[in-house]
Fold:
Amino acid sequence: MDLEQRSIGVDSLLPHYERYFGHRPAIIATAPGRVNLIGEHTDYNNGFVLPMALEMINAVSVAPSPTGKHRWVGSLGDSIIELRPEEASQPGDPFWSNYVRGVICMLERRGVKVPPVDMLVDSNVPRGGGLSSSAAFEVSVCTALTALCGADVPPTECALIGQQTEHEFVHVPCGIMDQFISANGKKGHALMLDCKDLSYRYIPMTDPNVSVLIIDSAVKHSLADGGYAARRKNCEDACSVLGVESLREATLGMLEANKTKLGDLCYRRARHVVGENLRVANFAKALEGGDWEAAGIAMRGSHASLRDDFEVSCAEVDTLVGLSYTIPSAESVYGARMTGGGFGGCIVALVKSNSVEQVAREMLEGYREALGIETTYIVTRPGQGAHLLFQE
Ligand code: GLA
Structure:
């Protein structure tokens, strides 16, 4: 995976689309990937998350198809796949088409009938890196198709459609965070979401002295592999023992009082979730007050908890986070942690802007020395959520 990506814009998409289909698109919609700053594995526990949208996007160009069939291109350079109208809302092959099929199905459930479309998908969100390329895909498809149909589907509904697509067509039992931030992200802001009632607030992230650094561990992750579903199950089991509806309702005191009944595994899983919700609150407060030291402490606590209690990190990611303490420029790093579902993927760090490139170089060098792995990084700002790039 390469974090240093080519740019995507209307100027390049229009000619590509015309080359495939011989006519112009009616709509081009984009939705971004995301990086989660803090609040990991809390979303499906009705807890709090604090992600930001990336500047890396998935772009979907569409127009009604003159052929009466759906014609889709999954990424630049691929060949066209053709589907009959009735097939387009059923699961099927190739695998990537399920992201589109799912969205069409969920729109139909809401009474939006999608006509056969010519669709070109292009993306510069790296796949399998824990930066939510799938959410960007679903949300951009939904944004494009609803604009094409003139349907009024608000961003949060689009996010839910994306999540249902994951559940039913991709078989990943994800929470709502990724789709929510992809749909609702705001340039220059992080977003704090309460996953219990989907209320949220934007937090400005415009301090020029602090940069968001993302480094790839070069370990691919897949949430369909079972580790993610197993963690969800551990959390549900903990809820049954505690007699609560979700771990949102649990407190550290309740966990201590029920430690034996919970058993070591569920106790630690629950301790991560309960502690992580508190860290999100601390992080939000720190961000709003410009207290980057405190924000960094929350991030470091989050990583340790994900590594030791929730056990979703891996040796490579731990090595990267460890380097943020030991590189020569370590004092320029406020905090670093794994980001996303885990089992590989990226780390995110908050770093003093005047030394962020130096920090990145030292981290990459340290990683190569420690594990012999070459990797990439990006320095990024909060990007804009789903929107239309072009409308004929
Ligand atoms: C993945 C899921 C999210 C969330 C994170 C962990 O990204 O898609 O819903 O659960 O893992 O915080």
